[in-house]
Amino acid sequence: MIFALLGAAVLGCSSSPHGAPIRVIIPKGASFSTAADSLSKAGLVSSPQLFRLYGRVTRDDRNIKPGTYLLKRGTPWPDIVSALNGGRGLVNTVTIPEGFTLLQIVPQLAGALRVPADSVKAAVRDTALIARLGIPTPTLEGYLFPDTYAFPEGTTARQAVIEMVKRFEREWKREWTTRLSQLALNRHEVVTLASIIEREAKKAEERPVISGVYLNRLRARMLLQADPTVQYALGRHSARVFLKDLEVNSPYNTYRSPGLPPGPIASPGAASLIAALYPADVPWLYFVAYPDGHHEFRTTLAEHEIAVRAARANR
Asked: Which of 40, 72, 164, 169 lies deepest, with the highest CB count within 10 Å?
């Protein structure tokens, strides 16, 4: 009776795989029973009890491999069990936060894909991708879109980087291209500005305001004087930028070099791209960060110096 019921259940679940792959995590040390619950919650197994029984009867319930799997609904139970035992369908998941630089992305991606860091470094210098994007910089800094990615086992560094660039291209909307002419900026300049906003803004509501201030400075032909660009030029992030840091000899040092830097200083997310494209209409030319993350905005240098002294006193 049990075998008849089990056979009917297996046959009833033997439709063809369909739809988008669903991500299922099998933790390290998880039992087959735990895996059955995870598969059931994901909608891949209709009856976790019968699925456990199936694993016990076939003696395939003792060798499952932990990891993150991508499986489609309708996958037959024998194929699911075979995937769990053979590690097929395993994916490597990596999360790239907004504001990460290539210096941070490269080791994270290399670790997730289990490939040498040098292969990732070569991939982010892919001349074909750089030419496709039409960017003047030697790397893809700023164009690996921040997101959580699930790369199938065996994905190469180049394949992963291509997917991250495609994600950027999918995120970039057609109306944004139309907006560029209104700003008198090209896409590379907008992505560069967005990357600075991403590194500067700590509060979401301040992104368009910071964007407006930076654009006001550019239009007034003032030095941008953006601390995040100095940190990028130095190759390190610190809580504060000191006077000696402002002397670093680099085109990314906007305290010395006019205009925007040559390219992005990090990977901006959608919110910062939108802020760069649609800045707030504000009169301010200066701002200073306070210890709690908010900024004070001012119109004149004299007002700004007062705000700076107040910010230092708050530290």
From this structure: 164
